Amino acid sequence: MLKKLKNRIKEFLRPTDKTVQIKWSLFGRVWREIGKPQWKWLLAGVICTILAASAEGYTITLVRRIIDQAFIERSASSLYLFGLLIVAAFGLKAAFTYAKDLIMSKAGLLAIARLQNRIYSHMMKMDVAKFYGGGIGKHLNYFGVQANAVLNLVTGTIIQAVQNIATLMITIGIMVYFAPQLCVMLLFMAPAIIIPLVLITRKRRVLSRRSFGIANDVSQHLNQTLHGMKTIQSFGNEAIESKKFAEIIRVSNLNAYRNTQASALQAPLLEIMISIGLALSLLVGGHFITSGVISIGDFTAFLLALTAAYKPAKSITGLNGGIQHGLLAAEVLFDYLDSKSGITDARGAVKLKRGKMSVAFDNVSFSYLPNEQVLSGISLAVPAGTICALVGPSGGGKTTMFNLLERFYDPQKGKISINGKDLKKYTLHSLRENMAEVSQDVFLFNGTIADNIRYGAPNATPKQIEAAAKAANAHDFIMGFPKRYDNNVGERGALLSGGQKQRIAIARAILKDAPILLLDEATSALDTHSEKLIQAALKKLMVGRTTFVIAHRLSTITDADQICVVRNGKIVEHGTDAELAAMNGEYKKLRDIQFKKTKK
Ligand SMILES: Nc1ncnc2c1ncn2[C@@H]1O[C@H](COP(=O)(O)OP(=O)(O)O)[C@@H](O)[C@H]1O
Ligand SMILES: [Mg+2]
């Protein structure tokens, strides 16, 4: 038991690791980015704070005068005046405190809104590799935990510091002014207070940093499970997920408790030191009064000031923890805000104007992760207005080619060009404006069907939306819903079937009316009958557009102008349906299997 205690104390005193050093220069950045825009509010808040502290100090000097003038000199008439003054002083203190609270709340709300808007627009511009890297749950924390911790640095911690320092200076001023002899005595006690506090602060800094990592784990886990609830339940993994969560919470609690162990020590330590100070002051002060060095009023003022100093002194010792926590959050947050998107407009990028578009891959190689080549040496020329089909085993790299075309990623080697010009020379916005994609996994936003179809063409009229839905063979099932086009699709389109979602995505692409069309297994979730209908619609849509089609069912691509068989990141066969069928290779094999099936 004793050994355990000894170990705990040892662990507590263990020097903190070097990585936890605080960069004080961050203060400047925090001020510039968060404090400065609200400087008027903050200044007003600081003034109110100082005025409130002064009013409090004034009440102490009033008590001293009451004792020395009214009681000792027995002048009853001045009692009325003092009574009034006391009420007035407290009234002022209350008014200034209230004003400070209102002002600081205003400053805080303005600052956090600004900060959150900044985080949001930064997130919107992130390249997908960075965005998805390390899970998306952590992004949520920047808005909540981190933003608030940084904000608190300005509107909470710093104002608190001002308030406490002002009160402390006023109370110490009173003590020194009325009873300097007693103050000298108290001075000797200072080291006994400071040394343990420094140790505690060091410990808390480590725990603070750890707590951010833990907060990320919590939101990461929550985010994943919220989105994967059906999968979890279908695999019967409820208990396993709960257990994982319990473990994360346990670690989080342990860390929080360690923090309490350290921080809760501060107040009692300080209290003991102050009580010793009080006891000594009483002893020595009593002696001074009887020997006539100081008056009873002076002594009372000293005692009142000493007790009034307790609260701010305690807060100041706790303040350091808050500052450390805030600065750590600021460091993480600013790192996030400073991270540059890898995919941006090149200098002098031009707008890609609408019109005919030819696309070419020129010896393109790409990997998502170092040393895991996904595409190697892809070369391909697609003339304007023609159809290029990509087929091959899954994992071959077909969707990746689309990702590169839309510049979600840039190839490490080679280049992709439109109308003979490198993709990177066009502005990102205009590039994507000229492409419409129906992707493998359709994403719908929580909103109405009409909203979702309109997503790529915000100004579309209801008539245009309906026409697009008709072309996508979606109109009929939409009319079957109680609210028709105003029916909600649910979170991520959860209220629709896979085939329905796909048809809405097709309508969305039709409405966008872009010169380059990217269809990634766009009809895979449909039954054969609907597929035929949509195929006809898509065929009409493809006219005059440069189209890339990824398809598993070869029957849908037999009339493509060129077909590429993509395997292990390479184009292994290339030609028209007839040419490839005659080659007796991979395509022929796939074709034989599929057409035999349909013939049966
Ligand atoms: N975001 C990603 N990060 C890392 N690897 C990826 C990512 N997306 C796909 N891959 C990998 O790239 C390869 C090609 O994937 P993909 O282009 O989706 O194939 P296909 O569409 O032909 O089925 C696969 O091995 C896959 O595991
Ligand atoms: Mg794919």
CATH fold assignment of the largest domain: ABC transporter transmembrane region fold
DSSP summary, beta strand count: 10
Strand content: 5-15%
Q: Which ions, cofactors or small ligands are bound in this entry?
A: adenosine-5'-diphosphate, magnesium ion
> Which word captures the global form?
elongated
| Name of the top-level CATH class of the largest domain | Mainly Alpha
Radius of gyration: 36 Å
The CATH architecture of the largest domain is Up-down Bundle
Notable features of this structure?
single chain; 600 residues; alpha/beta; ABC transporter transmembrane region fold; Rossmann fold; 2 domains; 6-stranded mixed sheet; 4-stranded antiparallel sheet; 20 helices; binds adenosine-5'-diphosphate; binds magnesium ion
What's this, in brief?
With 600 residues, the protein is an alpha/beta fold. It is built from 20 helices and 10 strands.
